[in-house]
Specification:
There is one protein chain. It contains 14 helices and 22 strands. It is of the alpha+beta class and 530 residues long. Among the domains are: 142 residues, Dipeptide-binding Protein, domain 1 (Alpha-Beta Complex), CATH 3.90.76; 222 residues, Roll (Dipeptide-binding Protein, domain 3), CATH 3.10.105. Strand 8 and strand 9 form a beta hairpin. Helix 13 packs antiparallel against helix 14. The longest helix has 27 residues.
């Protein structure tokens, strides 16, 4: 080998070594994306680890003082509660290590040790006590104050233990401890509500900068949960004056994900260039029977037949349209404990057979039965709030459907005041109403004492007592499954529909988006852009 070729050979080896060593150093200092299973089209070169969110008409980034829905959603990644809920509304401990119910009115909360605030100070039970003082005594937060309305007293027993007292028993009370905890020492000597300090939390991200048009977040290097290593190295929360500006920014590709409650989002951002994820909301409408109002509606056979004669999908398509889905039960919005699909779809043949087997006959088009020389007919009234146009249309639809099945229905339209009186006093045969379903799997509204339907079943009553006093998942699965069976047989309520919420995601956002009404940002630690 001549000298020129020798030097060329040595030069090539050096270049290969330097390229290889440089690539090694880059990979060592870069976020280890292999931990996050990027999609198959992603490479190290096209992954972007900054995320872009948005808030319109922001009041404050402090979640105890804010009434802005987007603020309350986003701050879940900055501040932490004692407990949180996963994508199936299942309770998970966060700042709490354990919660023990010592009696119906008393709870002991043991806190995680070693948790630090973003400024490096220790998290203690006195921070939780301080937060409860703020929520309950100051009236700052209407959102979280409602969760704690039965809390009468609370005390820190030591740095890691809190005791909470209630005025009356609350089924699944632990689910109400989802308020964000604030740092007592950080706000010492000043008014929390007017403080100009940049708030600190114990969450996965912390605020690094606040300006007039953006709030910057970076990973909290002191975060206690080392299993959640975020891919994002920065999150920009862009601030806009109006929601219209937010829509424009999303269309221009300046925002990665947006949570909305309007059904016609396409009218504002078009129909291309994004993913649309629709999920069931907490707003649930149903028909409640007063099971003690008359002989007809006290019969579970009749109630079951009525439920099978109503086409809920027809109600949705005819009266409600986009943004609504038929719903069979209060927990069918994605709850982990909804162990069966209570599909009570229309089935005229089965409804007919049920009534026929029970001795009812269809005479001149109407269902009737003769006993002891007396003839009775299946007919009833539905009480409706006259000011609620949607429910007026739904009631008329139900009336028409049941008339075709041979059951006459009258509709009692009442003023809002008289409707509420009828609802509270249970002075109705049936009533078209709705609730905002809680985050806990409590069924007290439907099966507890003084429930809306005046419904009583001794087995259900016993089950309700059991589930109020256990956290054993196997027991809960068994007991809820039995409640569902009884519900389908006796139908004191007929679930009708609920509306939906929407998340839209820029097509460049990669990650498992499992939004629900509690948290839009489940699994955000695994999100990135490409």
């Amino acid at each position: 080998m001549n000298s020129n070729n020798f030097f060329k050979y040595i030069f090539a080896l050096v270049v290969v070594f330097l390229v290889g060593y440089t690539a090694y150093i880059i990979l060592q200092n870069k976020t280890d994306v292999s931990d996050y299973n990027p999609d198959q089209t992603s490479t190290l070169s096209n992954i972007q680890t900054d995320l872009r969110l948005a808030i319109a008409d922001m009041d404050t980034i402090n979640p105890l003082c804010s009434n802005n829905r987007n603020v309350l959603e986003i701050t879940k990644i900055i501040y932490e509660p004692l407990v949180t809920l996963d994508e199936y509304y299942k309770l998970e401990y966060r700042l709490a290590e354990e919660i023990a119910k010592t009696d119906d009115l008393t709870y002991i909360v043991k806190l995680k040790k070693g948790v630090l605030w973003a400024d490096g100070s220790n998290f203690t039970a006195y921070d939780v006590k301080y937060t409860l003082d703020l929520i309950i005594n100051s009236g700052l937060s209407k959102v979280y104050n409602e969760n704690l309305k039965y809390v009468t007293r609370w005390e820190a027993l030591d740095d890691n233990t809190l005791k909470i007292y209630l005025s009356e028993p609350v089924q699944f009370f632990e689910y109400n401890l989802t308020f964000p905890v604030m740092c007592e020492k950080y706000y010492a000597g000043e008014d929390f509500a007017t403080s100009q300090k940049t708030p600190i939390g114990t969450g996965m991200f912390k605020i690094s900068e606040i300006s007039s048009n953006v709030i910057q977040l970076v990973p909290n290097e002191l975060y206690w949960d080392t299993s959640k290593k975020p891919m994002a190295t920065q999150i920009s929360i862009n601030l806009y004056k109006t929601i219209g500006e937010v829509y424009t920014a999303f269309k221009n590709g300046e925002i990665d994900i947006l949570s909305v409650k309007i059904n016609n989002i396409e009218d504002y951002i078009g129909s291309l260039g994004y993913r649309k994820i629709e999920y069931k909301s907490r707003d649930y409408d149903f028909l409640a029977f007063n099971t003690q109002s008359n002989e007809i509606l006290s019969d579970p056979v009749v109630r079951r037949a009525i439920s099978l004669a109503i086409d809920k999908n027809n109600i949705v398509s005819s009266c409600l349209g986009a943004g609504y889905v038929s719903s069979n039960f209060s927990l069918d919005m994605g709850f982990w404990i909804y162990t069966k699909d209570l599909n009570t779809a229309i089935n005229i043949d089965q409804a007919t057979q049920i009534l026929t087997d029970a001795g009812w006959q269809r005479v001149n088009g109407l269902w009737q039965k003769t006993e002891n020389g007396n003839t009775k007919k299946i007919e009833f009234s539905i009480t409706v709030d006259a000011s609620n146009e949607t429910r007026r249309a739904v009631a008329e639809n139900i009336k028409s459907q049941l008339a075709n099945f041979g059951i006459p229905v009258s509709i009692s339209y009442l003023s809002a005041e008289n409707y509420n009186n009828a609802l509270n006093n249970k002075s109705f045969e049936s009533i078209l109403t709705g609730i905002q379903v809680g985050y806990s799997p409590s069924l007290n509204t439907f099966f507890g004492n003084n429930n809306l339907a005046n419904y009583y079943n001794p087995e259900v009553s016993e089950i309700m007592n059991v589930i109020s006093n256990t956290s054993d998942e196997n027991v809960l699965y068994e007991k809820y499954s039995r409640i569902y069976d009884i519900y389908l047989e006796e139908m004191p309520y007929i679930g009708l529909y609920r509306n939906t919420n929407i998340v839209v995601c820029n097509q460049g956002l990669v990650g498992n988006i499992t939004a629900n009404t509690f948290n839009v940002y489940h699994n955000i630690e695994k999100w990135y852009r490409q």
